[in-house]
Amino acid sequence: MSEFPILFSPARIGTLDLKNRLIMPAMGTGMQNEDGTVSDRLYHYHRARGAGGTGMITVEIVAVHRTTAGPTGLGIYDDKFIPGLKRLAEVIHEGGAKACVQLWHAGRQTNSNVTGMPIIGPSAIPCPLCQEEPDVMDKKMIQEIVESYGDAARRAKEAGFDCIELHGAHGYLIAQFMSPYSNKRTDEYGGSLENRARFALEIIDNVRQKVGPDYPILYRLSGEEKVEGGLTIEGSKKIAPLLVKQGVDCIHVSVGVYETLRYVVPPMDLDRGFNAWAAEEIKKVVDVPVVAVDRINDPYVAEEILKQGKADFIAIGRSLLTDPQWPNKVQNGQYEEMRHCIACNQGCVDRLLMEGRHASCILNPACGREEEFTFEPVTESKKVVVIGGGPAGMEAARIAKDRGCEVVLFEATDKLGGQWRLAGKPPKKYEIAGDVKWLINCLSRRGVDVRLNTPATKEKVQAERPDVIILATGSKPTKPQVEGIDSPKVLLAHDVLEDPSKVGQKVVIVGGGATGMETAEFLGEMGKEVTVIEAMEDVAKTIGPARKHFLMERLRQYPVKLRLHTKLERVTDTGVEICCEKNSFIPADSVVIAVGVTSVNELEDELKSIAPVKVIGDAKEPRTAMNAFYEANEVARCLFSEKELARV
To answer: CB of 451 within 8 A of CB of 409?
Structure first.
């Protein structure tokens, strides 16, 4: 009997039958062509996920009107988009999933330099993030936008999509009308809840007229907006029945607006399934299926939500970026092979919104590169020696073994994981600790020859007669060269995360980067009196905005003090002397150093005479986990391909 009998049972939305209760929600990817048409990259991205076993795939936000169009998303405001969208629906169907598309207008949550037109909204109130005042929509423009939603739904149906979802959440245009936070109108589209809901109800009616009585309409709703004056669950519970009465066949209960994006795309700091309660509340007031979403990356959590009757469907988004085969693996009893999304937001959100590049996943660099990132079996027996058991080394060993290579991994310490293992030590980072365990178990199940407590030497590597050597020896912490730095009271952050027993009660942490701030939380949770000194004007610069918000929020609950524009001058027997606006002294029992790392790759030149050497991760240059996993995938997939090996 299946461990997940409800999750993988068939279910229905309106007239649409789904093979299971898993839905991939709409997620912006940045993979479209600049003119808003479907690109080959987006096609192959959905090809992979359509074949993964999910009941339905929802294609990301598509612009219903020119006032929300631009180079950052798909379009559906003209018939010219139908052929590309049809191609997308077809490839999703080929994989065995139903196809949905999300109809969207940003309203005030965009900028005119993106759309090339004045932005519009219900009231002349700028989005606090986008900071551009929208033109107030008159009744003529309201009706034009209403018609555009209906026309977009008609195009979606013509393109072969099985249903559409109206994006009425996250502070976009429909939600802007619905919420007293953004709607200050005094006409029939403002004021009372019924008036604020009028825009949405007219859209639903227009869509229904143009797609017919049997075409399923889903509606995404923020159960709570998490802003002062915004929608609360009580307001949403009054709205949901109005939507259903007007013709909506399913309610998808999300959370947040742009200002509270940390809840819209929740990081690992929030609990798994934290928003399921909102779906449960909406389910109490409607008689159509309800979808739960947010941080549901584990099938046991998903099954329990369904079992408790909190929702009828489960939306898993980022999990399908990490592992497109998530549903198939779980249903086929290969749960241990399924890789969990760690909700780091680095590849899917920060890369897209902060770097302007297409979405991906730090654990799955093939995401968004499905066409070129293929992992073919080797044509003849080959031996690979991997030196270093950190994230890059373990990942490279795993992929090389999967490709049919014989793999030996040398690790100098008694544990695998390297800095990835230490990264899983601070509070709220159990998802990373879980990924370390997953990698270790993968190597064990695959029969990789792992040799712990075995520092690599030229002689040991040569004895293995390798065809290729992958050098993933990582990095080591650096220390500032100041007086007293060799005192016994001076510890490295890495050592503290490994064993905090030597840390005194009063602690000064030197360095306010990610490692320093997370070590501060680690010690703060233990009740230590912590002061972080940082030479720059801000801390945790490499941590994405969502994670940083929650980290700083927790640090304020502990006795952790921050001293910016402050440098370490000297370590004394009783504390540290610092240089800031004026020289001063901080008492300290322990001084923890977290000021960066340097590469460890002394073996590279020695090993070149044995076999080709590929240096990856921090051994190449200290950077992020994203770089480590990307290079591990890139090198391991290209091994023994002359063309690709030369390119890498």
So the answer is: yes
